[in-house]
């Protein structure tokens, strides 16, 4: 394939990149320690969510979204954090050319899929609050499993391919030092031996379009839900209102490193159904132990 041939030619010139984003300063060491702590807390919470949702058929269908969100978070946490910790302990912080292509692939794929999944979850909340009588019809298993989740993953994949397709054809024949602790794609293409101005604009545009569309869809759904809740005064509506603000708190931190840690806490571990299911499992385990 042309892409594979070009990748092979590129790697004959530049076989590895040096990650220069980590230093021995005390501030960076403190940051790494915090990241280690967060990384250790991310996985148990997300695995608990996945296990609970898969093993308890009594949980409602919308929690399928939460299970997928937890899976994306758990996978996302393996992309940068482990490599960062290894580099922190290594004198020579080097990553291969192939590894520097694979890392941003999964970063964009999982990150894009997660952002679109949040839009899907916003649509689910909109139907549940604004069209409750149509919920069971609209959010049927085919729409839930095949339509929305697969679509979000597919769009995330296409976004990733669009970001990396041209990168494979770039000639890297000179500097190989990336001023970051991971292979940040805009920094990688700056090391190419040709003018990458047009490619840089293209990458920013595609990422910006997806981010803007996701933001507008989220904003629209929130406005509609807020207007609907304002006109209602029942107990169920107030519960929906509190759930809405839990999600809103999460969105303010979505694009920071805390997103992977806060997702389980805000979306699922505070969910009453999940807590009830976990308590039920603990009681069963206690009975078996006795």
UniProtKB/TrEMBL annotation:
Membrane-crossing residue ranges in chain numbering: 28-51, 63-81, 101-123, 144-165, 185-202, 209-230, 250-270
Domain of life (superkingdom): Eukaryota
Domain G-protein coupled receptors family 1 profile: 45-290
Alphabetical list of InterPro entries matching this protein: GPCR_Rhodpsn (IPR000276), GPCR_Rhodpsn_7TM (IPR017452), Olfact_rcpt (IPR000725), Olfactory_Receptors (IPR050427)
Topology with respect to the bilayer: Multi-pass membrane protein
One protein family per Pfam: 7tm_4
Keyword Transmembrane on entry: yes
A cellular component annotation (GO) from this entry: plasma membrane
Localization per Swiss-Prot or TrEMBL: Cell membrane; Membrane
Gene3D superfamilies linked: Rhodopsin 7-helix transmembrane proteins
Gene Ontology MF terms: G protein-coupled receptor activity; olfactory receptor activity
UniProtKB keywords: Cell membrane, Disulfide bond, G-protein coupled receptor, Membrane, Olfaction, Receptor, Sensory transduction, Transducer, Transmembrane, Transmembrane helix
Family stated for the protein in its record: Belongs to the G-protein coupled receptor 1 family.
Function statement: Putative odorant or sperm cell receptor.
PANTHER family linked: OLFACTORY RECEPTOR
Name of the protein described by the UniProt record: Olfactory receptor
Native species: Balaenoptera musculus
């Amino acid at each position: 394939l042309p892409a594979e041939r070009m990748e092979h030619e590129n790697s004959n010139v530049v076989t590895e990149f040096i990650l220069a984003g980590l230093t021995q300063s005390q501030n960076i060491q403190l940051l790494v320690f915090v990241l280690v702590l967060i990384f250790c807390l991310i996985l148990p919470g997300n695995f608990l969510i996945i296990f609970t949702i898969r093993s308890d058929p009594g949980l409602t269908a919308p929690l399928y979204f939460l299970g997928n969100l937890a899976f994306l978070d758990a996978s996302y946490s393996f992309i940068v954090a482990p490599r960062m910790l290894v580099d922190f302990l290594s004198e020579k912080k080097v990553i291969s050319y192939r590894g520097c292509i694979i890392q941003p692939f999964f970063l964009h794929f999982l990150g894009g899929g997660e952002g679109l999944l949040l839009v899907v979850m916003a649509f689910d909340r909109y139907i549940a609050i604004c069209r409750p009588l149509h919920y069971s019809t609209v959010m049927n298993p085919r729409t839930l499993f095949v339509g929305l989740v697969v679509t979000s993953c597919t769009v995330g994949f296409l976004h990733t391919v669009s970001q990396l397709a041209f990168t494979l054809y770039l000639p890297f024949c000179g500097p190989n030092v990336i001023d970051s602790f991971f292979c940040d794609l805009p920094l990688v293409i700056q090391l190419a031996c040709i003018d990458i101005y047009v490619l840089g604009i293209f990458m920013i545009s595609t990422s910006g379009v997806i981010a803007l569309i996701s933001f507008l869809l989220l904003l629209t759904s929130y406005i509609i839900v807020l207007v609907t809740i304002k006109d209602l005064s029942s107990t169920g509506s107030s519960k929906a209102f509190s759930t809405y603000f839990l999600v809103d708190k999460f969105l303010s931190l979505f694009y920071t490193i805390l997103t992977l840690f806060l997702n389980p806490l805000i979306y699922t571990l505070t969910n009453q159904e999940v807590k009830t299911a976990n308590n039920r499992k603990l009681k069963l385990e206690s009975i078996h132990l006795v």
